[in-house]
Design goal:
With about 280 residues, this protein is an alpha+beta fold. The chain is built from four helices and 18 strands. The relative contact order is 0.12.
């Protein structure tokens, strides 16, 4: 995908410019001044290289927004639908944020975000003039991800709230303000995953209930126990993101710690909770 490509170029450009020792190949500010003026440093670095065109997308010069923000316009052949609703905008933002975390944050730019910088990317389709805004900041770079993870295993039998994961990649926690309160995980794309550590009392067959929803249906997820695929589950159209159904399956578990992992094979589904009981 072209976005992934130009993000990689963008990240590598940051690294090359910030590490260059040649005064003719970098802005005047030294990288050590990041903590003093990350906004100014970012603008100097980027506008030294911009505007730049990559695969039909023009990255225009950036400008300041407030004391910590940078506006980064991008114009080109970017297929943005008309009248994006809130859910579509969030999904678009999540897609970009995931690529930014993988491509930009790991290429040496993360210290700028840690110093308080945020970047507002404005994508505009030059044909339709439709546009969408995406914020990339320290949260996008996932610098504090580990603090949100559960460290202890979940007792079996018992209920596991989806947001109480031991590890994950890509999923987001969503407050259920329009239904029964609490939270669920959502904004899931193919390739995302979530893990739960289970404390199993004895070997045996266990009944598992997955509380899931989808607006439109999804191929759902593969179920893995200790890295071995043991099941797959599709999620039918439940006519709403907060309209849940319970799917019943069984799992063979062994005494001690088991790692239950859900690998998303399709996007567009939510998980509320998992309940595990003896058969």
């Amino acid at each position: 995908m072209k976005w992934s490509y130009f993000l990689k170029v963008l990240g590598i450009s940051f690294l090359l410019v910030s590490c260059s020792n040649s005064p003719t190949q970098k802005p005047s500010n030294n990288i050590r001044n990041l903590s003093n003026d990350p906004q100014g440093m970012f603008i100097q670095i980027m506008n030294y290289m911009l505007p730049m065109e990559i695969d039909g997308i023009t990255m225009k010069k950036v400008s300041a927004e407030g004391t910590n923000g940078v506006v980064f316009p991008m114009v080109g052949d970017i297929p943005i639908p008309d009248d994006l609703d809130e859910m579509q905008t969030k999904m678009f933002s999540k897609m970009f944020s995931g690529m930014a975390r993988d491509q930009v944050c790991n290429q040496g730019v993360e210290p700028m975000f840690k110093a308080g910088l945020y970047v507002k990317f404005i994508f505009r389709d030059e044909k339709s003039n439709n546009q969408v805004e995406v914020i990339v900041d320290e949260k996008t770079c996932n610098t504090d991800k580990a603090s949100s993870k559960r460290k202890s295993p979940h007792s079996v039998p018992g209920i596991i709230q989806a947001e109480d994961f031991n590890d994950m990649s890509g999923v987001e926690i969503e407050d259920r303000t329009k239904s029964d309160g609490g939270a669920n995980i959502g904004y899931i794309d193919a390739g995302d995953w979530v893990e739960f550590s289970l404390d199993v009392p004895k070997d045996g067959t266990y009944v598992v209930e997955y509380r899931v929803s989808s607006l439109g249906g999804s191929s759902g997820f593969d179920v893995l126990i200790d890295s071995t695929k043991v099941d797959s589950l599709a999620v039918e159209n439940t006519d709403g993101w907060q309209s849940y159904v319970t799917k019943y399956r069984t799992l063979q578990l062994t005494e001690g710690e088991n790692i239950l992992r859900l690998n998303a094979t399709g996007g567009g589904w939510n998980l509320n909770w998992i309940y595990i009981d003896t058969e």
